[in-house]
Amino acid sequence: MNAKEASLRYLSYKDRTRYEIIRYLEKKGYSEDDITRAIDFLEECNYINDEDYCVRYINYGIEKGRGPIRLEFELKQKGIDIDIIYSKLNAIYSEDKERELAQKLIDKYIEQADKQIDSKELAKIARRLATNGFRNSLIFDLLSKYR
């Protein structure tokens, strides 16, 4: 199986970034020239496009309740260029959207708590929001009204 076929097979399972495919082909032992030709082919046929991937990933992350910090981290790990990440995050994930999503999650967590919300429970909610990638300043601002 040549590098082009291997990369198409790898892509058939799910969307991948340019970086992920390069890493996969390197691990499989293909030469740099074969990898370059395969990547050029995939980009020419629009099978891979990091900008489109980034937009889809951010929208999916928003649906799953992920904040911009976590999305940025995950996209960096997938090898997306930092300029693409910032431009797409700024275009899609406004501060209002982040605030709205964080508030929805707070409401959900409070509803799930089934008990009086004390400082210990608020700290737990704050940790969950921070883990999901929301800014600390936003978390403390939103949780201040529950104290």
Structural features, described:
- There is one protein chain.
- The protein is mainly alpha-helical and 147 residues long.
- It folds into three domains: 3-44, Arc Repressor Mutant, subunit A; 50-92; 95-146, Arc Repressor Mutant, subunit A.
- The protein is built from nine helices and no strands.
- The chain has helices at 3-13, 18-27, 32-44, 50-63, 68-77, 82-92, 95-113, 119-131, 136-143.
- The longest helix has 19 residues, at 95-113.
- The N and C termini lie far apart (62 Å).
- The model has no long low-confidence stretch (mean pLDDT 93).
Q: What keywords describe this structure?
A:
Arc Repressor Mutant, subunit A; 147 residues; mainly alpha; 9 helices; 0% strand; single chain; 74% helix
Summarize the structure.
By secondary structure, this protein is mainly α.
The backbone outline, from C-alpha atoms, is elongated
Q: What portion of the residues fall into strands of 2 or more residues?
A: under 5%
- In round numbers, the mean pLDDT is 93
Parts with pLDDT < 50 across at least 5 consecutive residues: none
CATH fold-type name of the largest domain: Arc Repressor Mutant, subunit A
Structural class: mainly alpha
CA radius of gyration: 20 Å
CA-to-CA gap between the ends?
62 Å
Biggest sheet statistics: none
The helix tally amounts to 9
Order of helices and strands: HHHHHHHHH
Question: What is the domain tally?
Answer: 3
- How many E-type strands? 0
The CATH top-level class label of the largest domain: Mainly Alpha
| Relative helix content | over 70%
The CATH architecture term of the largest domain is Orthogonal Bundle
